Amino acid sequence: MNSRTKLLSACLAISLAFAGWTWMRPYEWSRDAGARYRIVYASVKPDHAYCWLALHLKRAGDQPHDLLKPVRLILADGREVEPSDFSQVAEPGFPEIDYRFYLEAKDLSGPLRLKLNDGTLAVRKESGPLPVTDSTHYFNTANW
Fold first, then answer.
1. Domain 28-139 carries which CATH code?
2. Residue 79's pLDDT band (boundaries 50, 70, 90)?
3. Where along the chain do its domains lie?
């Protein structure tokens, strides 16, 4: 093996390690166990001056979702927003849930939290303009 092949092999190994770390990392490192679920990913789809925020969650324990407790998205200014849409995987115990929120684009400019069951999950930790173009954008971490 010459030095060029060794360099290319090292670059490939580093790239594969980074891709694997990006793929396997959780949405949020320290999750509130009271929420009973974890966020897998969030997506934002622009709709004129508004946006659809979709959250895909998976159950993170044995306890099922409590349908009697309200689900709310807590905005940076403290307002609480109800989901506009809700769907679940058709299996006993709701192993996966999707929530959709219809928000003004300005509502997405700060940190967001999801109040679910007896806990709160971080949806977005950053502040600033929405990092979205005209198409749907997916986020697999809360740092957006």
1. 2.60.40
2. very high
3. 28-139
pLDDT at 22 over 70: no
pLDDT of residue 19: 64
User: HEC string of 102-124?
Assistant: EEEHHHHCCCEEEEECCEEEEEE
The pLDDT assigned to 144 comes to 86
11: its two tokens: 């670059």
Q: Do you know the residue count of the chain? A: 144
- Count of C-beta atoms within a 10 Å radius of residue 65: 19
Write the DSSP assignment of 4-64 as a string of letters.
HHHHHHHHHHHHHHHHHHHHHS-S-SS--GGG-EEEEEEEEEEETTEEEEEEEEEE-SSSP
Q: Are 43 and 139 in contact (CB under 8 A)?
A: yes
Considering only CA atoms, which of 29, 58, 23, 22 is closest in space to residue 142? 29
